Amino acid sequence: MGGLLNQITMEILLLSIIISFASLGFRAITGKGMIFYFLRKPFDKLAERKKSIQESISTATSKRIEFKNEKNRLEKAKKEGESIVNEEKRFGILKDKIQVQTNILTLIASPNKYDWLLYIMKPFILCSTCMASVHTLIWFPILTGEFTYEVVLVMLIVAIFNTIIWSVVEYLEKE
Questions:
Q1: What are the backbone angles phi and psi of residue 17, rounded to the nearest 5°?
Q2: What pLDDT, in 10s, does the model give residues 7-40?
Q3: E strands, the chain, where?
């Protein structure tokens, strides 16, 4: 019994290592500056666009809040008897412009507009940990000739291997 268990364990570990190297190899050759980056490039641009839109929205929102605070200050000064008609109109107009800009960015160029596409492509090409699931589903039956419950265990092991190895690769690339 112990020999059979060791054989199954070694087989699962070997399958996990092979599938992990296959998926990490695919992740590496689709990285920036690599031969198959053209597969990944549109999704990188989507992520960059989403980040840019979110920054624009937060900037417009913070400016709107800043102008609202200034308008409150002006209203307080007005209650105290100061003449601030021109400044009040200017700040009101600027606040409205910022509100319109925020609404346009939110409605037309919503940062979440293409989230579904990023979520769908994440396990195929974007995330090394997520790629473990798809690559295991592809490679396990090819390597073993069958599709058994062991696929779940192999998938988890591949996800752990991919996470650890890709984290080390990214750390080394920073230096």
A1: -65, -45
A2: 878 999 999 999 999 999 999 898 888 898 888 8
A3: none
Please say if the pLDDT value at position 57 is more than 90.
Answer: no
Q: Amino acid letter at 9?
A: T
Looking at residue 123, its amino acid is P
Instruction: Tell me which residue range forms the domain holding 35.
Output: 2-174
How many domains is the chain built from?
Answer: 1
Report pLDDT digits (tens) over 60-97. 777 777 777 777 777 777 676 666 656 666 666 666 66
Q: Residue 147, by phi and psi: left (phi above 0), alpha (psi -120 to 50) or beta?
A: beta
What is the dihedral sign for C-alpha 30, 35, 39, 41? positive
Question: Rounded to an integer, what distance in angstroms lies between the CA atom of residue 166 and that of residue 160?
Answer: 10
The angle subtended at Cα 168 by Cα 162 and Cα 171, nearest 5°, is 135
Instruction: Give a three-class secondary structure readout of 85-132.
Output: HHHHHHHHHHHHHHHHHHHHHHHCCCCCCCHHHHHHHHHHHHCHHHHH
Average pLDDT over residues 151-164: 94
Question: Distance (Å, rounded) from C-alpha 20 to C-alpha 24?
Answer: 6
